Amino acid sequence: MELWKGLDGARVEKILDLASITLNKNSVPGDKSALVPGGIRIGAPAMTTRGFTEKEFVETANLIHEGVQLTAKAKKTVQGTKLQDFLKFVESPEFPLKDGVADLKRRVEALTTQFRIPGL
A single Gene Ontology molecular function, please (predicted)? Predict the structure, then answer.
């Protein structure tokens, strides 16, 4: 997928974490190193346990796609190529996409607060 070109799971994981989407980086076929996994993995069983249906899965996929787009934009503007450079950049007050991530987070939380967390 062209959108993922040059991205890795760790960077996407960080942006989505800032937007209240919890997932983890994951190795995928074709990765050159397990230390820099190229994919992400989300816990679908946790989503169905909360009551997500196909409609919410589609909405979640769209929200993740927006997070990937934000990650691609952030990667283009960060100085340095190391993951640590990226993490420091997105956590800084100067991060230019802060409003975009905040808007994504607001929409994620509007969706997820409609579904209870089992055990809480």
Answer: pyridoxal phosphate binding
Between CA 32 and CA 9 the distance in angstroms is 13
Q: Which of 2, 13, 7, 1 is nearest to 73 (CA)?
A: 7
The model's pTM: 0.90
Question: From CA 39, how far away is CA 53, in angstroms rounded?
Answer: 24
52 within 8 A of 60, measured Cβ to Cβ: yes
Would you call 26 helix, strand, or coil by DSSP? strand
CA 82 → CA 24, 40, 55, 86, 102, distances in Å?
Answer: 18, 19, 37, 7, 24
* Whole-Å CA distances, 117 to 1, 15, 42, 49, 52: 33, 23, 16, 8, 11
Q: CA 39 to CA 3: how far, in whole Å? A: 12
Tell me the per-residue pLDDT of 58-85, one tens digit each, with 9 for 90 and over. 999 999 999 999 999 999 999 888 889 9
